[in-house]
Fold:
Amino acid sequence: MKDIRILGIETSCDETAASVVLNGRTVLSNVISSQIDLHTIYGGVVPEIASRKHIEKIDQVITMALEKAGVTFDDLDAVAVTYGPGLVGALLVGVSEAKAIAWAKHLPLVGVHHIEGHVAANFIEHKDLEPPFMCEIISGGHTHLVIVEDYGKFRILGRTRDDAAGEAFDKVARAIGLGYPGGPKIDKEAKNGDPHAIEFPRSHVEDKGKTNLTFARGSHEMTNYDFSFSGLKSAVLNYLNQCKMTGQTWNRADVAASFQQAVVDSLVDTAMRGVHDFGVKKFAIAGGVAANSALRAAMRDACAKAGVDFYYPSPVYCTDNAAMIATAGYYEFLSGNRSGWDLNAVPNLALGER
Ligand code: KG4
Ligand code: ZN
Structure:
């Protein structure tokens, strides 16, 4: 078969990224320009600043991605771009850029779902991984347990009912003075703390009267595989408040470690229930929180115990990048999926929607 080189573009949040991927699984270049420093002073991503910075950086990042891959626009077979979900202004920069390149170079345009990209990150380093498998997608905006039935085809088993896991990390980090971005800072701080110092609640989401094998169909349907993190976040805030009111000191590393342990327990528990109930043999994690060291260790142990093959991307492919978009785009391309020149940014694009 002819070699396929796809340029991936990702601008859904605060990373301007471009990558060239060969035949879906060989990364020729992976350029990421992070805006973290710019947003840190505001304690979170400022959408207007993100859009403006994407516009400034996008050409440079794409040029670097082509140079590092040793290719020109003429060597490409398609342009894949994240068109949702994400910040609308940020997404529009990538979508417009991808359209301009595809139009000028007569290349097919492939719009990619950002979450599908996160799942596809697992294909990059695991050449043997093929659907079907179960995947827990844990990012700043999403927490989903899904069965990846085929490339780009998902059966959603559960989702978060309130905050996403990454969102909880970011909010708790802010509350304990670690700042933005919270996930990596809590991960680091927790290494010096006792994960059992404070017993924060583990969310236990269950709907009585439903069997374990209920699937999420409509966007509001609840299942036994749903997640919830806002109760835990409130428990941390209450703990801090109580310490303040009673004049007690609290230990930042212990709070970080105990909070992280509660998130990890919930994520592992729900995943392993799914693995057990559906009898899957392959389990993967994806998204920014999948970079968490405690989670990776706990999942590895739980999967080994359950006799399940465990897949996880390197940290650089867990957080936002364009290689995962090019990889997901490759499988969309093989399926014959093409986007029209009317491709638009869809900020609330649901998983499984096109
Ligand atoms: O997937 P991602 O890069 O962007 C979204 O699509 O949302 O995820 C970003 C989220 C942030 O909430 C960040 O705090 C979290 O992933 N994160 C982590 C770690 N690295 C990033 N959370 C826990 N531990 C980490 N090491
Ligand atoms: Zn993401």
Remarks:
- The mean pLDDT is 94.
- Strands lie at 5-10, 15-22, 26-34, 78-84, 109-113, 133-138, 143-150, 153-159, 282-286, 309-311.
- The first helix runs from residue 36 to 40.
- Residues 73 and 105 are 7 Å apart (CA to CA).
